[in-house]
């Protein structure tokens, strides 16, 4: 129970406490924790000696705090929980709560490298059927390793940032043409944020996941399917993805997700040694996709074939180092049903089966469309917690 | 003519003046310019008011200086040239020259995003013939756009850093196995370093190349061919590349390469509008590849199909922003002859035609092998300048 008005029973209650970076007019960006519809200003709390983190909570990004490691993350979370639950602290803390309506949220961490996986069997199978009809939907390597690639870190933007429709080349019957993308899509994903770095040449094992990963953000990996289709052979997606990737303003710490870990789908064939995680756990995050305010899909993250611990072990098995701020995303989250897919490519089956959004027909995104991805998860003590949403509106091409 | 002993006639003479970051024992990293076999300490020069750059020359990386833009880059280069040529400055500058043998060179810039292109027609054709015999060597998109992908920025290391042989999965007749790579290769490339950033949503045109690009570094994009071959469908290279990418310690400013711009190969079919650069210029950089001290190849950069200005325009046509420290590499540089290829994959034709290196037979890299990539170019005033070499030695897998 917290003394904060409106927080008990809220999906942003005291068992959630995600971290973000905010600004109120004319002041410096600083770190806060969300509680109900308010932001607890941790920079101010640190300045008042209410919470101690060696100054790491008084920076403009979460990176320095995330680099401190799990014992410090736990200590700060415990202290913040104490401040928000013990009436004795109310007088000191209440003045440090800022209404969410009065703040501007900023990118919560400086992104080091951004990696995007492709770990939903349903998504990979759907894409295979759409693009390679009549052939096996999964490629031969897919069940042996979590397929992934590097994306553009410099174009990761915070939720709410408008997305300008990208221009680029696409193939037509008359050869390639250049213009605004005509197949602009979303990918509903879950991102994992690395706090503790690792040295070059030293793989991080599946058991070390919680020592390195600070928390989770929802991700929309905007995708221009026409640009991607023309460019991606043989080196993978490039400009079809690099124009923008949106992340939620709130990073949910792993501690808040303890009750959300559930057995992941069984893997057959068995995986090789470095990918064998015991227990083999995914996360029961229940995503929602809203297109212009209408819910069009509910992707279940618990159905993902590869787990975040396996993704981290794979990412580093070759000796690649981790840096604070590395972001790796799951790949599009799609469940077995058409109402559970994480892309409009799948929702409209390659654009061949339009859907009705409000009163309008859609295959891909129109200018002015807004997409919002949210999620809930089982929280501590029988609560339900919400993950910070990621939203964006399409602006016309320049 | 410079007053620095040994510098007149040197490939690192006063018409070259590449920038790097160095350290001498127990002191802070700082920026220097190479002249012959000495480093001119620009941090000390700035502290002594010999050169003015608002403190940007007194940082641990080139990033702040590179962000200043071309007028400042030109002003600093002119001033450094003056200091090194006018006898009047000798007494003040001489004490700020440090023998190269006494310094440790560090990564010269903090890498923001790393992009790797695939812009040599000879290389792409060779790879096509090796991997897809009997089919057209180039894919249909190749002559319409410069194919590229994002690599891992966090594992870009400075020349001289040992490279640990990566472990990973590779395909065998009995299914995938995990172990040290057995087909470890190089890729001799030329990298372009972005100084001036660009805003999200605003493409950078082919004519704006020199406003954004600060200079050039040689790159060795180490590649584990067996890991790459198994993982790369459908999203491109990942762990086969991400374990290490080496760059030279010296960044050659574009100003030093004015005489090296030459007409690039004619492009047929004609390229689309945003890729049309007039004049269409490549760089006459003459690369050398040494394997355990023996020269095995001389890749000619002037044969590259896509120019660095076209690569930059392509990279941003979708509105992707640039950051200071972005690095984009050309892709493997290979000329038409077997003695001009930039990878051992091509030199040994897929590992089927071993070469003799010293007294030993090689297909791919053995533990202990050292590869050094160098280059020369026509410099100002009829001189020949050298680009800083990039070297690395293979350590056994852990």
Automatic annotation (TrEMBL), chains A, B:
Cofactor or coenzyme needed: Mg(2+); Ca(2+)
EC number: 3.7.1.2
Keyword terms: Calcium, Hydrolase, Magnesium, Metal-binding, Phenylalanine catabolism, Tyrosine catabolism
Protein name: fumarylacetoacetase
Alphabetical list of Pfam families matching this protein: FAA_hydrolase, FAA_hydrolase_N
Span of the signal peptide: none
Pathway: Amino-acid degradation; L-phenylalanine degradation; acetoacetate and fumarate from L-phenylalanine: step 6/6
Hydrolase among keywords: yes
Positions with a binding annotation for Ca(2+): 116, 187, 189, 221
Active site, renumbered: 123
Gene Ontology MF annotations: fumarylacetoacetase activity; metal ion binding
Domain called Fumarylacetoacetase N-terminal: residue spans: 16-108
Sites where the protein binds substrate: 118, 132, 228, 232, 332
Residues annotated as binding Mg(2+): 221, 241, 245
Coiled-coil stretches noted in the UniProt entry, renumbered to this chain: none
GO biological process: homogentisate catabolic process; L-phenylalanine catabolic process; L-tyrosine catabolic process
Matching Gene3D superfamilies: Fumarylacetoacetase, N-terminal domain, Fumarylacetoacetase-like, C-terminal domain
